[in-house]
Write a structure and sequence with these properties.
Layout: H1 6-9, H2 14-21, H3 30-33, E1 36-39, E2 43-48, E3 74-80, E4 85-91, H4 104-130, E5 141-143, H5 157-172, E6 178-182, H6 183-189, H7 193-199, H8 209-216, E7 220-224, E8 227-228, E9 237-238, E10 244-247, E11 253-254, E12 260-261, E13 270-275, E14 280-281, E15 285-287, E16 292-298, E17 301-305, E18 311-315
Parallel strand pairs: 1-13, 5-18, 6-7
Antiparallel strand pairs: 2-3, 4-16, 6-10, 8-9, 10-18, 11-12, 13-17, 14-16, 15-16
């Protein structure tokens, strides 16, 4: 008899697991840059893509001749998914009948608390990967300094974005369809003279992501609002720092339950490799010492770069000009 995997060994609550899969933490944008792509194992190799995914091929064939065969993706850097789990409590004082398992509402609230922690951790992992300048070649990044930052007198966000968009197009033949703005970069745009000059005839008195999407010809513009403190006594800081990321992200496919999932075989900036069936919620158990019912929630997933030059990093866009 084969040994059970950790996922198979769990006793899963199907209703709350379904609830967890639909959970979205407000302000998080990492999943829009690294869409979920289910994988069956905790380790393997990232399917990476290069220029061959966009190369022009001669597909003509003579009658009876062999059809040309190509490989669009290849096994690249290894990945390892580290299990992520957390437990949340429903104290008996919150329940009318402490002898009964908590109702669906109390259970859902407990799961929301656990998922909020897990999704913030995922957001932080996405940002650390996307903001790491070492992951980009010299043609796919720029570090703004002084007055050239979007807070500065000579800062020109539209020019910076246009240069990044063109760098991606020249590399893969497709322009970016996603822009992730840090909260500080988005705030800088509200007062940037060049942006305000461009939108003054729109009748709008503030800069919105919809206006920026039209101005920059990028389908989806998002603002990363999440903050995090990495230590017990640390101050909160912006997860996305002062940076901006442009990327081409493959459109996902709708599953039978209406969610959108990525396909790791489709060329894209990146994915979140997630163990099939994640996240999941275990059936609650009673902890007598805590006088509480305990809900265990797992979300075993890790963001990965797919290896294409389909991204562009603008560092320090929202940083101070001085």
């Amino acid at each position: 008899m084969s040994q059970q995997t950790p996922a198979q060994a769990r006793v899963v609550d199907p209703i709350l697991s379904e609830h967890a899969r639909g959970y979205v933490r407000p302000g998080n944008v990492g999943h829009l840059l690294f869409p979920i792509a289910p994988v069956p194992s905790y380790g393997g190799q990232v399917i990476e893509f290069g220029k061959e995914a966009f190369r022009l091929y001669n597909t003509r064939r003579a009658p009876g001749a062999n059809t040309k065969r190509i490989d669009l993706g290849y096994a690249g850097k290894p990945y390892a998914i580290v299990p992520n789990a957390i437990e949340t409590k429903v104290p008996r004082e919150l329940m009318v009948d402490a002898a009964q398992v908590p109702g669906i509402d109390l259970g859902a609230n407990a799961v929301n608390g656990g998922m909020g922690v897990l999704k913030l951790e995922h957001e932080y992992s996405c940002a650390q990967l996307a903001r790491n300048a070492a992951n980009y070649d010299a043609q796919h990044k720029i570090a703004l300094v002084g007055a050239d930052r979007w807070t500065g007198a000579s800062g020109d966000p539209t020019e910076d974005v246009a240069n990044g968009s063109e760098a991606i197009r020249r590399s893969i033949g497709v322009r970016p369809n996603v822009a992730i703005l840090s909260a500080t970069a988005f705030a800088a745009l509200q007062f940037n003279a060049k942006i305000l000059e461009r939108i003054k005839y729109t009748g709008r008195d503030s800069v919105t992501t919809d206006i920026l999407a039209k101005l920059w010809n990028i389908k989806n513009v998002y603002v990363g609002e999440a903050v995090v403190a990495t230590g017990q006594n640390d101050d909160f800081g912006d997860v996305w720092g002062d940076d901006v990321i442009l990327a081409y992200v493959a459109d996902g496919v709708k599953t039978a339950d209406g969610r959108v999932q990525g396909n790791s075989a489709e060329p894209s900036y990146g994915y979140t490799y997630a163990i099939t069936g994640m996240p999941l919620v275990e059936k609650p158990y009673w902890d007598a010492s805590a006088k509480s019912w305990i809900y265990g929630t797992s979300d075993d997933a890790s963001p990965v770069l797919s290896g294409m030059t389909a991204g562009y990093l603008i560092q320090n866009a929202g940083g101070p000009a001085a």
